[in-house]
C-alpha cells in the first residue's frame, strides 16, 4: 500500500521551479519587445515637469501649469516627516524673500489624512506658502520620489533644473543666488 501513496505525492519543489522558469521566460520575452510601458525612464534634470492639479487647503484647485513663466519650487513632504519639519522655516523665509517676483513654492503634502493633518501643521508653523493636498500620492509617483522631502526646481519654461533629495536650508546664500539667477533669466 505504501508504494501507491508515494506515487500520489506531489513534488512541490518541481512545480515551483517550473512556474518560476515559465515566469522568467515570459519576462525575458517581454523585455526583448519594444514595449515602452516596461521601460524605466528616470525623472532627471532637463526634462519637462509633469503637470498636476491638486486642491489647496482652501479647496481651490492649483495646477503646476498655472505658474508657467515662474520659477517653481515643488516640495513633496509629509507632516510626520522630521526632515520636512526641519526645512519648513527656511522654505517660509525663501517664500517671503521672493514674494512678488516670478517665483512660487508648491508644497505637496502626501499625508493620507489630507487637510485634517495639514491645516493644523501649517497653522502651528505659521507657514504662508501654498500647501497642496495629495493623499493618494499621485505626484509622488509621477515625480518618481523615493521618500520625503524631495524637491524639484522648475524653470520658467517648465523644465526640471534641479532635483533635491532630503532637507535643505533654502535661504543659504548660494541657493538664493541660484534661484535669483533663474528668475532673472
Folded structure, characterized:
- This protein folds into two domains: 2-38; 53-184, Glutaredoxin (3-Layer(aba) Sandwich).
- The strands form two sheets. Strands 5-4-3-6-7 form a five-stranded mixed beta sheet.
- It is α/β, with parallel strands linked by helices.
- A hairpin with a 5-residue loop joins strand 6 (150-154) and strand 7 (160-165).
- The protein starts with a helix and ends with a helix.
- It has helices at residues 2-8, 12-32, 82-97, 115-124, 138-142, 173-184; strands at residues 53-55, 61-63, 71-77, 103-109, 131-133, 150-154, 160-165.
- The radius of gyration is 24 Å and the shape is elongated.
- It contains six helices and seven strands.
List keywords for this structure.
single chain, elongated, alpha/beta, Glutaredoxin, 2 domains, five-stranded mixed beta sheet
Report the average pLDDT across residues. Answer: 89
> How would you name the CATH homologous superfamily of the largest domain?
Glutaredoxin
Q: How many H/I helices?
A: 6
How large, in whole angstroms, is the Cα Rg?
24 Å
Structural class: alpha/beta
- Described by its quaternary structure, the protein is single chain
Order of helices and strands, N to C?
Answer: HHEEEHEHEHEEH
Question: CATH architecture of the largest domain, please?
Answer: 3-Layer(aba) Sandwich
Helix content: 25-40%
**Low-pLDDT residue spans:** 36-41
How many domains is the backbone divided into? 2
Distance between the termini: 88 Å
CATH class of the largest domain: Alpha Beta
Let me know the number of strands: 7
Major sheet description: 5 strands, mixed
Strand order of the largest sheet: 5-4-3-6-7
Amino acid at each position: 500500500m505504501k508504494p501507491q501513496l508515494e506515487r500520489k505525492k506531489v513534488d512541490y519543489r518541481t512545480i515551483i521551479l517550473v512556474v518560476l522558469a515559465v515566469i522568467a521566460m515570459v519576462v525575458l520575452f517581454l523585455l526583448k519587445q519594444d514595449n515602452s510601458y516596461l521601460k524605466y525612464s528616470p525623472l532627471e534634470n532637463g526634462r519637462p515637469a509633469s503637470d498636476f492639479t491638486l486642491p489647496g487647503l482652501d479647496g481651490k484647485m492649483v495646477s503646476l501649469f498655472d505658474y508657467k513663466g515662474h520659477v517653481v519650487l515643488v516640495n513633496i513632504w509629509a507632516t510626520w516627516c522630521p526632515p520636512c519639519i526641519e526645512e519648513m522655516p527656511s522654505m517660509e523665509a525663501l517664500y517671503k524673500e521672493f514674494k512678488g517676483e516670478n517665483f512660487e513654492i508648491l508644497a505637496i503634502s502626501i499625508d493620507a489624512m489630507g487637510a485634517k493633518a495639514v491645516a493644523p501643521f501649517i497653522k502651528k508653523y505659521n507657514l504662508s506658502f501654498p500647501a497642496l493636498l495629495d493623499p493618494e500620492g499621485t505626484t509622488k509617483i509621477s515625480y518618481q520620489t523615493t521618500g520625503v522631502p524631495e524637491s524639484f526646481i522648475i524653470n520658467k519654461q517648465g523644465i526640471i533644473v534641479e532635483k533635491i533629495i532630503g532637507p535643505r536650508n533654502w535661504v543659504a546664500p548660494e541657493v538664493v543666488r541660484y534661484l535669483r539667477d533663474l528668475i532673472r533669466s
